Amino acid sequence: MYLKDIEEYGEDVNDFETSPFELHFAFIFRSEIQKKYTILSLEEKELLARCDLILLKNAKKALNHLSKIYNFKESKAPIEEWWWHLDKVVSGEIKLIANATE
């Protein structure tokens, strides 16, 4: 049901040639899909985990790119939505473990 959208999220978190607004939209999508996590298929959860790993691999680039339009230090998002706290991920303040089976 959400495979195509999750694939697009994966592309967005690996492309820093586009506008930072596109990455911001990808983070908004990621928050929305998190709300639906329990209804995702195993295939969708696995793909989402792989895409999150891409974002984690690119965390510093994503932080620098999105910081052009978004102040991570002022994020009000819950810590479970770690993508809104990339500054803390990059600094090591937040440590993550990807899990596609929860």
TrEMBL record:
The name this protein goes by in its record: Uncharacterized protein
Organism listed in the record: Bacillus cereus
